[in-house]
Amino acid sequence: MRWMYCLLFVAAAVAGSAVANAADPFVVQPFRVLLGSDLGTLEALLVKPSEPGRYPLVLLAHGSPRSPADRPTMTPLAMLPQALEFARRGWAVAIVMRRGYGNSDGGWAEANGDCGNPNYVAAGNAGAADLKTTLEFLSHRPDIDSTRMIAVGVSAGGFATVALTADPPPGLVAAISFAGGRGSLESDQVCRPDRLIDAFRAFGKRSRIPMLWVYAANDHFFGPALAQQFADAFKSGGGDIDFIAAPAFGSDGHGLFSPAGIPLWSPYVDRFLTQQQLVMRADLLPLPRPALTPPSFLSANGRTAFETYLIDAPHKAFAVSPDGHFGWKSGSRTVETARAGALQFCQQSGAHCNVLFVDDAAVGH
User: Fold this and answer.
1) d(CA 208, CA 240)
2) SS3 342
3) What is residue 164's three-state secondary structure?
4) What is the DSSP letter of 188?
């Protein structure tokens, strides 16, 4: 999607004013969200259709990696494919990095505390505060319809979105949580799940915003039985949710809200938006497809992986060995990081690998 990087470069150069070539279907614009109390700013990205107009807003909230060392490397570009799915439906979409993630200022504010005594309500409220600040910041833009805003989050971002609905800003009309929760330190283990259930119950007592919740059958962060307990607790206080127990996805369904999962999760979103009378376009805007051809010696699995690579998030790279081994890395802050990651994954088989594709360009065969 080379048009995206042109837009990103120009948008940064003009310090926040929206730009687009008439032939480009979308505007992609980096911006910063001002925090109060001299805390600095949050890193963010705005994606919207290029046609001039006043658009309703989707706010996308990312998850939290298990390793603290990964938080600074995160980038809003990692959620660009998901943002484009909403933009092609007629929404402006903001991806915001909360405090302590990516290049956002303010220090990490979402600590749960000790695993044996976590304070999930405080962590959820801290994340929700950054989401609320972002919505307030964007509500003053002339190209945003602040009377129609929805929040969409995944994992810890989904949990923050749930917390946001318990203290919503004006104009928040609906919210979506994919695999929402906190406190999963390793596969199928959660710190004090009873405390997490209690947090959902507390938020449900104050939340009256209609929500869609989606959990996959093979989610290894928050499994089906625990997810159902979240839903029961939230609804017991009056929370309004449409709960979807989605089928298994990949090796860990926690990654359902991903580019590869678009064919599965987008119908859930479309149905929910229809129910809430929030359908903005009858026909979806088309997404440009990179004109790249996979190497002929790739296996069937490799070709399937390459199809996912094509729609995955920048910055990204795809590496291949002469005997058909492959690996790719996406959603990286720099091209160099993407290249290194692709080589590392490819070379896990012990093969000699070369990077053949970077972002949406072939770099050698």
Assistant:
1) 6
2) helix
3) helix
4) T
Asked if 253 and 221 touch (Cβ cutoff 8 Å), the reply is: no
86 in Cβ contact with 178 (< 8 Å): no
Record the tokens describing residue 73, joined without a space: 């490397």
Q: Which strand (E) or helix (H) includes residue 267?
A: helix 262-275
Q: Which residues contact 109 (CB under 8 A, 6 or more apart)?
A: 98, 99, 100, 126, 127, 129, 130
For 7-58, write each residue's pLDDT tens digit. Answer: 333 333 233 334 444 458 999 999 999 998 788 999 999 999 999 999 999 9
Q: What is the pLDDT of residues 130-152, one digit of tens each?
A: 999 999 999 999 999 999 999 99
- Which amino acid does the sequence have at 36? G
* Residue pLDDT, tens place only, 211-247: 999 999 999 999 999 999 999 999 998 999 999 999 9
- End-to-end CA gap in the chain: 20
Are the beta carbons of 242 and 211 closer than 8 angstroms?
yes
Chain-centroid distance of CA 197 in Å reads: 23
Sign of dihedral through CA atoms 252, 253, 259, 261? positive
